[in-house]
Amino acid sequence: MVGVHLKNLPMTRGFISTLLLLLLFSLDVSSQCTHWFPFNEGSTFEYTFFSKKDKQTGRVSYVVSEVTKQGGNFTAEVDATFFDKKDKNYNEFSFQVECVGGTYRANVSNFINPTLTESFGSMEVNYSGDDLVMPKELQVGMELPDANSTMQAEMGIMNIKMEMRITGRKVIDKVQITTPIKTFETYKITAQEHIKMTMLNRTSSSTYFYAEGYGQVKSETYDKNGKLSGYMLLTKFE
Length: 238
Description:
globular; mainly beta
């Protein structure tokens, strides 16, 4: 099981940072484990968030700070920094991802926009659930396993719980996607996301685009009526 450590969580507007962590990758590792994440210390990459009207609403920067290898398996420590629409740093956290036997694994809680978890504050959070997994090879028509995570914290009489599920994951097509980096040949994956906590019960649909050798290069989020809420693009890789 992999985890996330949260700190400094102010409330700000945003949408679910869907599958933010299925990111970039370098070829010397892809042949060993996965196409969908850079298990190389010092790798840096960035996503930019946009509204449905193409206005920039924020960005997130990642640094792979540490990688450990055991046999053909990898574990990476990743540091993330979120910036708001004025490019002000408003949140930082770290998390771990794994590649085991060619399968990429990550805790679903890593994909939740940190503004949704601000109610946890500095409390110690316990996690349970089934990791999100990505096989090394994708094919159109492939159905991927569901994933879920429960985050729970207690402080005195206060009990806070958040549940997130990602369901109906399916590879539906191969399409070209253009980003500020370049135009990619990608796999198009659709899924539904469900978040439940006190005063919030939300379901949305998402479409993700993955390029071999880079991982996720774009995602789109849609509301319950099927209207585009926003999207994010891979905008930097070093």
